[in-house]
UniProtKB/TrEMBL annotation:
Name used for this protein in its record: Elongation factor EFG domain-containing protein
Gene3D superfamilies: 3.30.230.10, 3.30.70.240, Elongation Factor G (Translational Gtpase), domain 3
Species in which this protein is naturally found: Darwinula stevensoni
Entry-linked InterPro entries: EFG_II, EFG_III, EFG_III/V, EFG_V, EFG_V-like, Ribosomal_Su5_D2-typ_SF, Ribsml_uS5_D2-typ_fold_subgr
PANTHER family: RIBOSOME-RELEASING FACTOR 2, MITOCHONDRIAL, TRANSLATION ELONGATION FACTOR G-RELATED
Residue ranges of domain Elongation factor EFG in the record: 258-343
Amino acid sequence: MMKWSIRSVTRICIACQETTTGDILCKSSSSHGRALEAASKRGKQLVAEMAVPTPVFFCSIEPPSLHAQAGLEHALACLAKEDPSLRVAFDADTGQTVLAGMGELHLEIVRDRISKEYKIDAELGPLQVAYRETITNKVSDTLEFQRRVGESHHYVKLSMTALPEKSGKVLELQHTKENAENLGAIRPYQMSAVERGLHNTLACGPLLHCPVRPHPGSIDKSRKCELPIMVARNEARDLRGDDPGRYLPARPSGGQPRLLEPVMSLEISVHEDHFSVVLGDLARRRAQILSIQQRLDIKVIECLTPLSELKGYSTALRTLSSGMASVSMELLDYLPMDSMEQSRAIQSMTGISTSFSSPKCA
C-alpha cells in the first residue's frame, strides 16, 4: 500500500513511498481498473515497457569499516530502486558485495552519490567485464535418484540434452510415444523444481562461473536455450526439496565450453587531423571497422570493439585527439572469443595461467 502526502490545493505529490523506477502511479484503484479496461479494448499495452540494459561491468564494493556496513547496504538498496540498470548482489564464495552497471562512469557516479548523500566513503574493487559462457557441441547426461521413505520407494530418472543453437524455449519436453505416460505423471510442483534447478545450473558456467547462454551463430536478440528433458514414470516427491538443482545433472560434460565477450557498437567523431592516430589505436584494441563517413572536417567512425579493450577509452581518446573527439557506445551482443583471448581472460579473472583447451564441466 502506497503512502501519499498531497497538497489539496495544487494536487502536487510531495512524498510517495514503496515505489521503484518503472512503476505506474494511479490516484485510485478504480482509475487503474478503467485504464486497464480501455487498453484491453484497444488491444494495446497501457504504456510502453521500459527497456533495462544488461550490465556489462561489475566490481566489488566495501565499506570503510564494519560499523558502516549496514549504512552501505541501505544506500545500495535505495540506489537500486532508483536505477534499474544498477544490480547489487552478494557473492557467497568471496563474501563481497558486487555492483554491476553499464560502465566505468556509471559505477563511479554510484560511489560518488554514496559518499555525498549517505556520507560513506566506500571503496570499489578492480573493474571486471561481465562475460557469458556457452557450449559448442550437443551434450547429454542422465541422473537416477532413489530414496525409500517408510514402505514407499521413490525413483526418478532425468535425461537432459543441452543444445548450443537457439530455440524458442529455455526448457522443452520431448514428447514421444515412449515417454508420453511418463510426462503425464509429472506433478506441477515437480516440474517447478526441475525448472528452478535448471535455471540455477545455467546461472553458473564451468569456466568462470558466468551465466550460460546459447552459442551465437549470428546476431539475434531473440535467442534462448533449448534443453529437452525426459522423466521416468515413478517420480520422486523429494524433487520439491530446498535444493532442486541437486536432482539435475550438475553441468553437462563434454560440451566444449567457450567464453562469450560483450561487444560494443561505437560511433566516434574525430577531427580529420587526428583521424589516423585514432584509427591506429582502434586497430590495437581489436576493433572491426564498419564504416567511415565525412561530415565537413569531422570523420565519423562506426566500429565493433570488445568491451575488455575499452577500459578507460574515453580518457585515452581525449588524450589522443587533444580533446577534439567524442565517442558513444552501446552493447551489441555477446560473441565468441578466440582461444588466445579466452586464455588471457581466464588468467585475468582467476590469476591462473592456462593454455586453451576444452575443459570438462564439473
